[in-house]
Amino acid sequence: MKMFNLSNPIPPDMSAKKRLALIRSIGANAKKDFEEKYPKLSKWFEEYDPLYILSFCAVYFCSHPEGTDPEATGEEKFHPFFLEILQAFSLVNKRTFEAKPLLDDAEKLYEEMREIGELISMRHLDIPASLNSKEDINAYRLRTDMMSHTTAVRNWAYLHQMKRITNDIATLIDSDFKDIYGVSAVALMKIFFDLCDQRNDLLNEHLSKVRGFYKRRRDDYKVILQAYNDAFPENIALKGDSVEEIWELAGKDKENLLYMLICHSDLKLRDIYSFSFEQVESILPETENKKSFREMLDRLSYQFGDLKKQNKEHIILDNPVSHRPFIKVDNDSYFSAIWGSLLHYVLDILEDLVWENDSLRNKYAKLKAKYLEDQTERLFRTYFPDAEIKRGSLWKEPKTGKEYENDLIVLIDSFAIVVEEKSGVISDPAKRGAPERLFKTLKHLMEEPSEQALRFVKFLETNKKEHTFSTKRGT
User: Fold this and answer.
1) Percent helix, strand and coil across the chain, each rounded to 5?
2) Which of 185, 252, 370, 459 has the largest CB neighbor count within 10 A?
3) In whole angstroms, what is the distance from residue 27 CA to residue 141 CA?
4) What's the CA angle centered on 451, arms 415 and 395, to 5 degrees?
């Protein structure tokens, strides 16, 4: 990696008060620009078909060749959350059936989303005037960091891990979930996974067709047009007089002709991200109730116009499409542009449904906690095969006499790894940076278990002897 030395743009002799004022002015300007430009995203869906706009962005701005990771290399400029924001905006009004290509407007849309993305982050520099102490400003920064993370960061694990863990957890509650909703939780997750895989196949198939006629660019224009006919046989074939008309329209320039054909093929991009209920049925096991699954799909879908009253500001930190990722186009077909980040949300979607039933929620919380304990022990046993592993040790703090439980201790020679586990969720208000809820969540999920682990470490350090601990399991 190349190293670059950048001088500090803020003069070193500038006082802390002036530096803070400068930062606030940058944030205030960003906030003003954001409030002006962000609502104007609606215009794209008034001029163009929403399904075309969304699928165009998904293909040209958010898809990448296998084996590349532009986020890791710092080359990703159009982030998945841009697409999620656009999908929410597309649902504000009824669908516009305008079959025209973006052409030069594609670059305008791209730059507009990039600018809005930067403003979303920079507006947080508008630090409230009431905050002046270092402690208050650090607390504000923690909140805004959490909000930025919620806005932009996707995927809580590698893809294969997300699939495995989500499927494991769905299996734990499968029977109870089916009793309540009439559909299998495992089958529902399979629908998500398989439909995502199918989008990749359809995208590759489409790109292969485009390459099929584009690689004839050095041939005669009639050969190019015939190759286009062959690539998309479902189209009305370009033959006879229509061939000459299109050639004239392209100014008898092969580059213009190819550009026109690619733009025309882009009108088919929506098919990549659409699916029918018949396709869903082909994935479902025969034991599943098709009617219940259709109802579940409708439950997880919006229709155009459903978000008319949605506060557009809330879309950024609590995007409704993350809970209902599909657009119901008609009685039999659905669409989504966010397949690239959908697997990030499937566990949340499952938990949304679980949370609606108190009995299932309580059972799920216990099963999820046990799953965490089992998986943590399994990982340590796998990667520390020679270690001695103890689980659920009950011990008393000598001074207070209070009893505590250590989740896992891993003994390797004269070393001990003390492990505390916490199964819980970060609530939506905490993700949005609500101060009281965020700090309460961090205390519950991070501070308290850390203190408990350190307490046990101190106990072992100050009581150097051979210990025997009982467990809740009676061992």
Assistant:
1) 60, 10, 30
2) 185
3) 13
4) 65
Residue 236 backbone class (left: φ over 0; alpha: ψ -120 to 50; beta: rest):
beta
Rounded to an integer, what is the distance from CA 246 to the centroid of its chain? 42
Angstrom distance (rounded) from CA 406 to CA 454: 11
The tokens for 389 are: 């592993």
Q: Which residues of 300-318 are buried (b: 16+ CB within 10 A; e: fewer)?
A: bbbebeebeebeeeebbbb
Under a CB-based contact definition with an 8 Å cutoff, are residues 271 and 202 in contact?
Answer: yes
Please choose, from the candidates 238, 233, 271, 236, the residue with its C-alpha nearest in 3D space to the C-alpha of residue 257.
238
Residue 390 to residue 408: CA distance in whole angstroms: 6
Q: What angle, rounded to 10 degrees, do the helices at 185-214 and 159-172 form? A: 150
Which is nearest to 222 in space by CA: 244, 237, 255? 244
Q: What amino acid occupies position 383?
A: Y
Alpha-carbon span 188 to 174, nearest angstrom: 10
Which of 324, 291, 292, 290 minimizes the C-alpha distance to 307?
A: 324
For residue 154, what is the DSSP state? Answer: -
DSSP 3-state of 418 = strand
Contact 411, 466 (CB under 8 A): no
Measuring CA to CA, which residue among 325, 326, 316, 328 is closest to residue 344?
325
Rounded to whole angstroms, the Cα distance separating 427 from 213 reads: 50
Mean pLDDT of successive 10-residue stretches along the chain, which has 475 residues: 81 87 94 96 94 96 85 83 97 90 92 96 94 92 92 91 96 96 96 95 96 94 95 92 94 95 94 96 91 96 96 93 96 95 95 96 95 96 96 92 95 94 87 90 92 95 92 88
Alpha-carbon span 369 to 11, nearest angstrom: 52
Q: Other C-beta atoms within 10 Å of 233: how many?
A: 7
Residue 406 DSSP label:
E
Q: Which helix (H) or strand (E) holds 335?
A: strand 333-335
Cα dist from 379 to 250, 383, 389, whole Å: 62, 6, 11
For tokens 């059936």, the residue is 97
Residues 468 and 153: their CA atoms lie apart, in Å, by 44
Q: How far apart are CA 146 and CA 427, in angstroms?
A: 12
Is 180 within 8 Å of 187 (Cβ atoms)?
Answer: no
